[in-house]
């Protein structure tokens, strides 16, 4: 079976949408990973089809090496397949789409590719620059120089590209930063201006970046597991498609891309103009970040450690258990969403929460609970504690599910202690399964030192530990007593019973 290419698709009589190979290159994209290709480039592809924008994406690998990726995907005309697999509105989704939005992949650590990147920089066709260089990508590296070909850091590469474009007298561009850090666009622009200062470049260039370019903060949300790992399943998919595709990517149906900007920006983005679901321009993405952290991430952190203690191993199985699913939904609809009403539309939050349940019930992803439990102390502090405090402030009472989640979190770290090792706290849950709890060293040392302690003493010492929580949680009226009682239920009757009690 042949690899996907324009020629292969013609041979097999492919009838789906394909953008012509020679369409103008309107997008320069820093990053070539599964997320960008399955999420951002799929949006461009669908926007092309819906609006006739007809723009190709030039992918740029932001780090040295991995030349095999660029050569491999270029050999198949930069075509690849995205499988959308999961649940949507309770229904199983398993759909494929050939993405034809990409034209080529460059690695600027090769001289010819660096030169080609700079040719794109000064092109009259270029309108948009996109990036996802991981959370570590938007960072200042003082070793970068103006004449590096290329400089090591992504912001230095980008400011080189923009300076070359400005020097050629070309108009500004839209920059869409997709890295998972707060205020990603603002931070990217700040670091680029630092390089302008370091390198003694012109003030006029800084003004051009500020006034003629639009560097956007964005918020992205979808799960992209990547490739199909089971060889038999991969072979069956290839047989169904009619071609081999070593760059096929799998993602879930849910998608959200919030882009900070005004209405004029929305008119310039083909996927927004097309009205594609899940992507929008908003004056401020901050409330949507809060929604994601408190509903999606907060749900994970609230029910997962207790579910592990109860004997579950993967997220999907939790969604098939009436008590665990009920605990999560009671927490979201009765405790979390009411605290978001001041900043967000309540019905929109409810729809987001319903989508979360579908996402957790994805039949194609075996999401291990133990992997989610990594660094759960800091996660609970960032994701669940703010909601608990807001709920208490607004109602004068404790949110039972969130308070119970703190008890089950403590239970996760205080199952039968096997040993404290360099890689974490080695524990054994009630069914005999041994596991390693991984967290900050001070957290693990704390729980190791409290092994065998009376639960009332344990809870008091946990809640009053300001290094864990940034404050003394025993000062929240009734919380300490509630957690002691809930932990007693976990010890005597199991975490599921504690979850059930919280819903009563």
TrEMBL record:
This is Altronate oxidoreductase. It is an enzyme of class 1 (oxidoreductase). It comes from Collinsella aerofaciens. It catalyses: D-mannitol 1-phosphate + NAD(+) = beta-D-fructose 6-phosphate + NADH + H(+). The lineage of its organism: Bacteria, Bacillati, Actinomycetota, Coriobacteriia, Coriobacteriales. Keywords: NAD, Oxidoreductase. InterPro entries: 6-PGluconate_DH-like_C_sf (IPR008927), 6PGD_dom2 (IPR013328), Mannitol_DH_C (IPR013118), Mannitol_DH_N (IPR013131), NAD(P)-bd_dom_sf (IPR036291). GO terms for molecular function: mannitol-1-phosphate 5-dehydrogenase activity; tagaturonate reductase activity. Residues 26-269 form the Mannitol dehydrogenase N-terminal domain. Residues 284-487 form the Mannitol dehydrogenase C-terminal domain. PANTHER family: ALTRONATE OXIDOREDUCTASE-RELATED, MANNITOL-1-PHOSPHATE 5-DEHYDROGENASE.
């Amino acid at each position: 079976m042949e690899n996907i290419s324009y020629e292969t698709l013609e041979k097999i009589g492919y009838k789906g949408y394909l953008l012509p190979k020679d369409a103008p290159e309107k997008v320069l994209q820093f990053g070539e990973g599964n997320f960008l290709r399955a999420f951002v480039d799929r949006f461009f592809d669908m926007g092309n089809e819906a609006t006739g924008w007809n723009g190709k994406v030039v992918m740029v690998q932001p780090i040295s090496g991995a030349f095999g990726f660029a050569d491999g995907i270029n050999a198949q005309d930069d075509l690849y397949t995205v499988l959308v697999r999961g649940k949507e509105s309770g229904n199983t989704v398993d759909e494929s789409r050939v993405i034809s939005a990409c034209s080529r992949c460059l690695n600027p650590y090769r001289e010819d590719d660096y030169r080609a990147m700079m040719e794109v920089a000064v092109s009259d066709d270029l309108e948009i620059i996109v990036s996802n260089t991981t959370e570590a990508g938007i960072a200042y590296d003082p070793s970068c120089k103006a004449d590096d070909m290329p400089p090591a850091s992504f912001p230095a590469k980008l400011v080189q590209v923009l300076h070359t474009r400005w020097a050629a007298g070309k108009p500004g561009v839209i920059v869409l930063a997709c890295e998972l850090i707060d205020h990603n666009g603002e931070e990217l622009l700040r670091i680029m201006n630092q390089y302008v200062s370091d390198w003694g470049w012109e003030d006029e260039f800084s003004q051009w970046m500020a006034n003629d370019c639009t560097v956007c903060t964005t918020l992205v949300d979808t799960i992209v597991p990547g490739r199909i790992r089971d060889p038999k399943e991969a072979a069956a998919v290839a047989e169904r498609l009619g071609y081999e595709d070593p760059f096929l990517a799998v993602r879930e149906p849910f998608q959200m891309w919030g882009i900070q900007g005004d209405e004029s920006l929305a008119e310039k983005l083909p996927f927004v103009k097309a009205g594609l679901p899940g992507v929008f321009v908003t004056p401020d993405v901050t409330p949507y970040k809060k929604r994601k952290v408190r509903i999606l991430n907060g749900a994970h952190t609230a029910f997962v450690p207790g579910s592990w203690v109860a004997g579950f191993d993967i997220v999907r199985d939790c969604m098939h258990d009436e008590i665990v699913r009920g605990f999560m939904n009671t927490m979201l609809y009765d405790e979390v969403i009411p605290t978001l009403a001041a900043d967000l539309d309540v019905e929109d939050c409810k729809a987001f929460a319903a989508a979360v349940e579908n996402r957790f019930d994805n039949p194609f992803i075996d999401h291990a609970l133990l992997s989610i439990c990594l660094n759960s102390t800091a996660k609970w502090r960032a994701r669940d504690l703010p909601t608990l405090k807001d709920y208490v402030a607004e109602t004068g009472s404790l949110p039972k599910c969130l308070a119970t989640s703190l008890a089950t979190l403590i239970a996760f770290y205080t199952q039968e202690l096997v040993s404290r090792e360099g890689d974490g706290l080695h524990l054994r849950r009630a069914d005999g399964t041994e596991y390693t709890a991984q967290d900050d060293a001070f957290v693990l040392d704390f729980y190791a030192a409290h092994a065998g302690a009376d639960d009332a003493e344990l809870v008091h010492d946990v809640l009053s530990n300001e290094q864990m929580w940034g404050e003394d949680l025993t000062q929240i009226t009734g919380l300490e007593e509630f957690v002691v009682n809930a932990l007693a239920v976990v010890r005597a009757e199991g975490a599921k019973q504690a979850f059930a009690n919280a819903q009563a």
